[in-house]
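FAQ: What does the model actually see?

It sees only this:
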Amino acid sequence: MGDKVYFISDLHLGAPDAKSSRERELRFVKWLEEIRKDAKVLYVVGDLFDFWFEYKRAVPRGFTRAIGKLAELSDAGIEIHLFTGNHDLWIFDYLPEEIGAELHRAPIEVEHGGKKFMIGHGDGLGPGDHGYKFIKKIFTNRFLQWCYARVHPNFGIWLADRFSKKSRQHTGGDDAIFKGEENEWLYQYCKEVLEDRHIDYFVFGHRHLPLDLKVGEKSRYINLGDWIQYYTYGVFDGDMRLLEDGNSK
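And it is asked to produce this:
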């Protein structure tokens, strides 16, 4: 087992169609096999799936190659952390248990190599985006989740999958545009945190745009991009770098 820490986010497996999703999944599996030789920890920082809902005895079809490879890395001793995102916030206990991963629903603060990290998907953080913050409260309400679980999986999974795709279409190409530091909500969130305590690296997803920005004098905000357009990921081995996967599609 190696000593590197890897970060990846926003694969959105299942989108926009079965063919392109399968190609992306195979590329992801190949990447997982490559990092296996030197990875100590892997953070999957949200939206691994474009949609996910776990019923007690039913889950969405597909993604067996990705799930199996993640479980294989976990079995080999690599520590895996799985974050829920805004598209797969209905991950409960099946995937963590099947993969052997620790599940996180909110940002965490950890230390690697003497550096302090804040890691999270990033949805609902910082100023603005009040509409989504309200919707997230509804989707994470335990009673409403229980009510939704009473819907037959054939209809419930179809409905939620349709909503997920509509949500992604609504953002359009907005994710590919850098809005300036004053309008980047996660950047502003990083500045707010630094007023209270020091963090060396803020590592988020959600934004879909690869970013490596200096915050203050000694901190950096890293957005991991996505695996729909950019195929980027983060790696820490004493220094934090944002890299692009070299595998062909």
